[in-house]
Design goal:
2 copies of one chain form a homodimer.
Chain A: H1 9-23, H2 35-41, H3 46-58, E1 62-65, E2 69-72, H4 76-100, H5 105-118
Antiparallel strand pairs in A: 1-2
Helix pairs in contact in A: 1-3, 2-3
Chain A binds a DNA duplex (30 and 30 nucleotides) through α3.
Keywords (chains A, B): DNA-binding, Transcription, Transcription regulation
Pfam family, one (chains A, B): GntR
Protein name (chains A, B): GntR family transcriptional regulator
Amino acid sequence: MYFDDKIPIYYQIKNHIYHEIITGALQPGEKLPSVRQLAVDVTANVNTVQRALSEMIAAGIIESKRGRGNFVTMETTKITDLKTQLVTTQLAHVYQQLHALNLSDEEILASVQHYIERKGQAK
Amino acid sequence: MYFDDKIPIYYQIKNHIYHEIITGALQPGEKLPSVRQLAVDVTANVNTVQRALSEMIAAGIIESKRGRGNFVTMETTKITDLKTQLVTTQLAHVYQQLHALNLSDEEILASVQHYIERKGQAK
DNA sequence: CCTAGTGTTATATTTTACTATTACACTATA
DNA sequence: TATAGTGTAATAGTAAAATATAACACTAGG
């Protein structure tokens, strides 16, 4: 797994798993790979994976059953809430950043539209 | 200055100064505060500030004159290029993140529009 | 020429994330 | 009941960022 060296690995693992849950790659109630397997999958240490999982458990998205495994919550409202929260966080961040670069609301919207239209193309 | 503990301080300082240059708070050719003063301003160490400055110098945005100070480049094209680059980086990041949450191009655009319309308001 | 202010660099120390390794607690099942 | 697989936690070590502090190199101005 690719890691951005500017951001803690445990944080990136957490985000990665959240994405899998939100996109349905991991279904509600589904068992996650074991912590040891996850560590191999993402090429990180068990403790680092555990740290990521601990935060997701504290957030109620993952349920931990000792001796059995970790499971995605069955409460789908928690998952939809998580998605809303992640999307909003991303929007707030990019808005704040672009606004700090003196782009007006209109320019921000236009720049996003422009980016989507031109993405993947040579300039 | 507020620091996000998930991102290296030197990196945040660099970004902060870039924003000041792009918004014109620091004009082309203008002298920056001394590294020692900057360290006080942003509540960080001189070496940390210097690391941020070194990268900006390497990028050609800041010119260093030993014994005199650090100065914003007079080449305004470098500044506009920097702005373009920062904006594009932000757009690419948020697009990738939202796309990874299974939002379509249309949904991404709509969510940005929606965010701008509703920002600062209760839900 | 001297001094104050500037950028630059170096050393030692602290802090934190991460790793490697081991051990412990629990569950299911053969 | 023994064993393999699971989560959990502790210990010790490594690496990188950040700090405190000091020194060095240069410039401008008195």
